[in-house]
Amino acid sequence: MDALKVTNITKRYANHLALNGVSLSIPKQAIYGLLGPNGAGKTTLIRIINQIIEADEGEILINGEKLNQDHISIIGYLPEERGLYKKMKVGEQLVYLGQLRNLSRKDAILKSKAWTKKLGIYEWWDKKIEDLSKGMAQKIQFISTVLQEPELIILDEPFSGFDPVNANLIKDEILELRDKGSTVIFSTHRMESVEELCDHIALINKSEKILEGTKKDIKQSYKSNTFIVDHKGRLNGSLAEDFKVINDQALDEDYFQSNIQIKAGTTPNDLLKNLIGITEVHSFVEKIPSINEIFISKVEGGNHE
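Below the sequence we write its predicted structure tokens.
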């Protein structure tokens, strides 16, 4: 059973179609990347899942059960537009938000103190939110989202405002939450974070889903039978006709890197044998497209090779 199943969700705002029959299947205990350019419909879908707005058509199931008010207690949501009470102290804020999530006051205090110690901001427990740096406030917002270790965690641009050190700290916490049983929906424009964290992805563009699957399978499906070869000297047209040099560049005076595409019916071994006969090979690796390259190709209308 999927943690979350979205079926034919449609949402209109006056003359604007925000979502057009979008369907997604999000496995349990996955980190699921929800990708798309600005205005694609990602935030609208997230708000529907959180019951902030309602869909015009379609159905959402959580753990096989139709979405309802009871699910609010098992969802943790970190919106892109952050919102904390600036005049409240850190500890008061976290305990208050924890109690809103059905934690007892005692548990809210214990968990809040444990998380602030874990993220290195316990010494700010009695400081007001307005006295915190943007990064510290971001940590408080993240803690409030995951305080009760919800079954479903929805993170919209969670690394906004973090320096690289703290971004890595939050990445580690997301992975640990997944390992403990949470399912994470992760919406971001930072493709390097998708590469590092996500095991499943979906791409929404112009209100429609245009791609979904495991990250591994999608990257494999977009391969172009191209290999990156570091070698001595230029190849200068010496390869067999089954192989095509897409481009090359000098690494230094004597060494070059070439992108070489093999034709259908040939193998990497065939290319390597050809290369060994004409040059000194220092590195030979298949070119696997990045999520960023696939994203740009699909959004800009590139062909699927």
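The domain at 4-219 is CATH 3.40.50.300 (Rossmann fold).
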